[in-house]
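Our collaborator T.R. sent over the components below with a one-line note: 'Predict the complex.' Nothing else. No constraints on interfaces, no templates requested, no preferences about which chain binds where. So this is a plain run: every listed entity goes in together, and whatever single assembly comes back becomes the starting point for the next discussion.
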Amino acid sequence: MAVATTDALASNANAKLAEFAANKKARQRREKAIEAVLFLAASVSVLTTLGIVYILVRESITFFANVPLSDFLFDDQWTPLFDDAHYGIMVLLSGTITSSFVALCIAIPMGTVIAIYLSEFAGHKTRETLKPMLELLSGVPTIIYGFFALLVVTPLLQKVIPGLPGFNILSAGIVMGIMIIPYVASLSEDAMRAVPMSLREGSYAMGGTRFQTAKNVVFPAAFSGIASAYILGISRAVGETMILAVAAGMQPTLSFNPMEPAATITSFIVQVAMGDLPHGSIGYQTIFAAGAALMLLTLVFNMLGFYLRKKYREAY
Amino acid sequence: MDSAKTAALRGIIAKARRYDMFVSALGLLFLSFGIFVLAALFIDMAITGFGRINADFFTNFPSRRPAEAGILSSWVGSLLVMFVTASVAVPLGIAGAIYLEEYARKNTFTAIIEINITNLAGVPSIIYGLLALGLFVYTFKLGQSILTAGLTLGLLILPIVITATREALRAIPQHIREAAYACGASQWQVVSDHLLKYSTPGILTGVIIGMSRAIGETAPIITIGALTFIAFLPPAPGQLNIETGQPAGLFDWLFSPFTVMPIQIFNWTSRPDPRFHENAAAASFVLVFMTLSMNALAIWLRYRLRKNIKW
Amino acid sequence: MPSIITLPQNPPPMKAEAKNLSFFYGDFKALKGVNMPVYENKVTALIGPSGCGKSTLLRCFNRMHDLYPGHRYDGAINLMPDGVDILHKDVDPIEVRMRISMVFQKPNPFPKSIFENVAYGLKVRGEKNRSVLDDKVEAALKGAALWNEAKDRLNELAVNLSGGQQQRLCIARALATEPEIILFDEPTSALDPIATGSIEELIGEIKHKVSVLIVTHNMQQAARVSDYTAYMYLGEMMEYGETNDIFMKPKRKETEDYITGRFG
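Returned assembly:
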């Protein structure tokens, strides 16, 4: 009797096991399929980067077949659409550097002080009310900042600086700086708030005031995070387009004077794209070459910021 | 401690305290300055443009006569482009985030994906425009259309949606997942029945912030070649074409030329006639109102989230 | 049963005294009418199970609670010889912290060099003279038994030191300003036994210059290191007396239960 039951049991168990195995296979197939779909979605970012690299490289290669690299780097004029065409990227770079410099002179000091205030001085209620308002500043579309720079800030500046042209870098740079303040302030404040209280208590216990503690303990401890916030600000300034396209004029001149109009890499691309560009013409390729230069610049800053953020995360 | 030393010490403390107050005041001043600029911007738009805002403004096409110009084609265009953008960014973003957060193993390929996402978040929007121009418009022959614009902006805001979704998923504690598994759920069931539902507010916040960014983007759309003087609407499915007499297909609107709000504003700002500047101000007011409302909504959602979730 | 405070027969001069001290975190009464003397150049230990309020009491002495909203002091801590109540709202907490230093549970050196760490308190007090700073830093490091190990590395980052060395650095930092009282908040609980031993030895030497109030969850440490001991429970001062008496002949059953390990 016992033997028979065990046999029946065994074959029953085997059948059940086969059933379980079949179910498992079906479920696993479903799950694997779902995972594959999700993986493809995640890979879109890689595809995007590859797409960007591909298109920039492809058009730049054609461009550099016609224009020697040394000309591109060292020529002091940028007149790609003229008969006597010059392709010196330094000209556009000078506009980018000048405008970014003006913007960062505003964004970095003001952003840092605001961050210190929010992190070390402001009470909880103040911080929770004012910080979101500041973040709204970064939500305004840049075309509207451009409008503001051209039609409000420039006339104001012209009252203070007689002879300021209607299109100038100063106005655009200032508005750019104001737009970047929330990025710098928010990220720096996050970095400072991550500093553990025990470090601050060490300073307070020695009789330090809030500012002494902020300057001597919090700021140095949070420095990698703060630096990566600065880098983000620089990246933002270098890549900004519309404020400059509207308010800075589109004159490519090799100059570092903010009181003049100038073209940046970004505003040049927009200017050309607005006109009629036969696909495949040298003018068409120019914007990709300029874009490649911009991409390289941004890449350098992004990598720097990424490296700094990693360092800051390791500290705690 | 003798009195001379104490007095000296008190002097030093007082000086340090004054520094404190100065820094505090400076911080508050700068903060107020930023908020003041925001208010000034908004008020300036309102004052300059308010006269122009009436029902006609929303239902008129742009025109060479400033008093008759309106934003019909641009706000419809913006709406349609946003629809395509969301259709691209939301599913891809959520799916990608789920993969990275719940499925991906720690290997080089995952690291590559993550580095890419971080990098793309910092790429200037005009580069996306170049990508679209070279690849979508010409190589893939999608033309200078709503589809191209939507795809481009979708890719642009993809990192925002992915990051927000990942953070929302990360906030769900491990024991919730364990409880679901313990009930016999498969991995996908845990994700779809539980995790997605609990992280909806966070995901929504990210999507809103992304969309508010997309709606204001100008540079990539210009680069694609959106024209600035569009005095017609994309063909609605079934709409009869005047010239050919044929009804429009279901997807014809995707391939139609178009314009969006920021471009209309750009066009009007660039004209010397100050009456067009009024139009620009009015349109800007509408656009700023929309983006600020969306941002405020997202911020409020984030605040509610932090208050309500108690694991 | 009210607290049993056994004052010594010929008490040494008093450096500070908590008088009927209560403390509130919001509505929660964390300290309930504590009375306790702190004698000059002696080590007083606060012991008791977790949550008994010993750290809370310690942090009243240097007004640390002022950093966090929702705090309320009730009663007084009188600092001698002036007899001023340092908890009074007219007294500047910064001034209190300049006279009463603290060493924390987890070593918390600043992200600066060894020299800058020790000199910080002096700089905050306005000392700018380089040679004065050099002398005082050296004296403090010697007082913390760290000078030999640190003298060639003064400009290196403090975080590169070992745990025990970092804690001695924090003690040097506290000593550099020549405080009247040093508060120790479980200073060795994050350290290994050898480092613990050297810190305990240090405390024994420091007390000749400074008065010491130390919180410890390690009873044996209290027995080794202190002259007077206070046993606390649930915010109340249960018993206070000379260390030998507390550990050999405790007067309250609660004290005895805790000391013998029957409780806590």
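Summary for T.R.: Residues 130-143 of chain C form the longest helix (14 residues).
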